[in-house]
Amino acid sequence: MPAQQDASLKLLVSKNRLFGTIRLNPLACSALYDSNLTLEQGQIPSTYFFGPGLFDEVSTRYRPFHEQGFFVEVEEPRMYWLVAGFTGTINSLRSALATDAKPLTKAFFQSRNFIYAPLGVNKTTVAGSIKKMLLNAKGISTTELEAYNQAGQQINAGVYFIIDGALKGTFWASQEGGWSRGGLGQNVKRLFPLDIVDYPVAEDEVPEVSAWNTQFNLAMGMVPDSKAFHWGHAFMTIEAIEAYYKEPAMLAGSGAITGQDLWDRMLRLGAYEQNLGYAVNGAAFGALPMRAGVHYFSKNSSGGIARQKQLVCDLIYNFGNA
C-alpha cells in the first residue's frame, strides 16, 4: 500500500493531535445549561492536528461524522480561540473580544460579554496555551457544575476545568453579573462552555496574529471584524476525547465496530493512501484515493443518519495499514 502523499492527510499523526471538540446534549444547550449536563451520545468527535515543525504554521481538522460527510480540511494557517458567552449574538468577532477587554488570569481574558483564551496558530503555541489554561482554571466535577448552574446565584468571573464526570476534559466560564445576550438585557448566572473558534490567516500575518502576550492591541486588530470564522463545538482535551472514544457506553461506533476500533484505525489515513471504491449493481469499479477537502458519505447521499454512520464506521474500520 503506497505511503500517504496528500500533505494535509500526512498531518494525521498521533503526536500532532492536540485537542478535540465535542457536542453537548442539545437539551442542555436549549436550557442554557441548567439541566441535562451530559454529552450527546453517538457522536464521533472531531480532532485537530498541527504541523510538527517549530515554524510549521499549518493545521487541519479531522471530522469523521457530520451531516455533510466524512471530511479532513485542507491544511492552512489558522488562528484558534476558546470563547464562552452568548456566541450567537456575535456579528463582529473582533468587537466581541475587544470591547472592554482585560486579562482575567494569565491564560484567559474577559470582555464585556465574553470570556476567552487565545490558543495560537502553531503546535508549540497551542500546546503551551492548553497547559497554561489547565494551570489557570479551577478544577470542579460535573456534579459541582450542575450545582452551580441549578442554583443560578451570583458568582465571580472565572474559568473552570471539569475533572470528573460526564463532561470531564471541558472548560466552562462564569461572567461577572451573569451572561448578557446583548441588547436583550438577559443576565444568566451560570457557567457556559468554552467553544472553539478559528479562522484562516495569511502566513506573513502569523507574527502579528500571535502577538497577544506582548502586543495585545496589534493581535486584536488581526481578528476578523465580521462573522467570517468557524464556530465549533465545546473544546475537550485530547486525553478526554480519547477516553470518550474508548468508552463503550458512549456508542461512538456502529454495529459491531466500537469507538476503540475507530480510535485505533483512524490515523491509518495519515500513514497510507486509502482508496475508496464504488459499486453499481454489485459490480465494483473506480477505486480512487481519498483526499483532504473532499466530503464523503453525506447524510443525504447515504439515505439517512443511521446509514451514514454505518458507512463512516465501515470506512474507518477498513483503512489499510500496510
Strand content: 25-35%
- The percent of residues in helical segments reads 10-25%
Provide the number of structural domains: 1
- Low-confidence stretches are none
Across the major sheet, the strand order is 1-2-3-5-15-16
How many helix segments?
Answer: 11
* Helix and strand composition category: alpha+beta
**Could you say which overall geometry the principal axes of the C-alpha atoms support?**
globular
The rounded distance between the terminal residues' Cα atoms is 6 Å
Summarize the helix and strand pattern as letters.
EHEEEEHEEEHEHEEEEEEHHEHHHEEHH
* Average of pLDDT: 94
Rounded to the nearest angstrom, the radius of gyration is: 20 Å
The main β sheet shows up as:
6 strands, antiparallel, barrel
Q: What is the β-strand count?
A: 18
Plain-language structure description:
The protein contains eleven helices and 18 strands. It is an alpha+beta fold and 322 residues long. The chain has one domain. The chain has a six-stranded antiparallel β-barrel with strand order 1-2-3-5-15-16. Strands 9-10-11-14 form a four-stranded mixed beta sheet. Strand 12 and strand 13 form a beta hairpin. Helix 7 crosses helix 8. It is globular and about 65 Å long. The mean pLDDT is 94.
Helices and strands in order, then pairings?
Blueprint: E1 17-22, H1 26-30, E2 46-50, E3 58-63, E4 71-72, E5 76-84, H2 93-98, E6 102-103, E7 109-110, E8 115-120, H3 123-135, E9 138-141, H4 142-151, E10 158-164, E11 171-174, E12 179-180, E13 187-188, E14 192-193, E15 195-200, H5 206-209, H6 216-220, E16 230-237, H7 238-246, H8 259-265, H9 268-271, E17 275-280, E18 283-289, H10 299-302, H11 305-317
Parallel strand pairs: 9-10
Antiparallel strand pairs: 1-2, 1-16, 2-3, 3-4, 3-5, 5-8, 5-15, 6-7, 7-8, 10-11, 11-14, 12-13, 15-16, 17-18
Helix pairs in contact: 7-8
